[in-house]
Amino acid sequence: MIDDLERAIEAMLFASDAPLDPRQVAGRLGDEMTPGQVRTIIEAIAARHAGSGIELVERGGHWHFQTPADLAHMLRRERDDPRKLSRAAAEVLAIVAYHEPVSRAEIEAIRGVQTSKGTLDVLMEAEWIAPAGRREVPGRPLIYKTTDAFLQHFGLSSRKDLPGIDDLRAAGLLDPVDLAFDDAMGELDLVKDGEEA
Known about the structure:
The protein is mostly helical.
């Protein structure tokens, strides 16, 4: 049987316009609950909703209700997504996600080209990246990290859920030129090993 406290927490999470963490929920309940106790109740609510038409999910330590991914095709309306990223913005976002925290100079070194401030601005306006302080080196450059909104938009629980190189290769998302180069380098190594033997 569901008690009144669990119902109250469920209602808070459902009615909130932004994901909440257990500390925020505990704060709204007053001094009667610790964040650890609230987290236990939230996990029970999530388990109860698992497999139903709505699910309670955690993204970056914050909880919110959403429709399950397997039902998205039934709920999606035909419309243009106004947030189309340029190739440069997609590259910068990937670099920040995989190398965070990272400075603009580091992004440019990885990409091999200059990155315009506008590219970073677009990603910050989308709330997918944010400043993460300054690097403790001469010049103290600003460094960037991904946000909880990035995790939520891409359906990730944490950065650990980002696909690895093998996942990208299996999905056919790697550039065929890069794959051909890797294969050629592997064959070169085999030839060298044969010559040394």
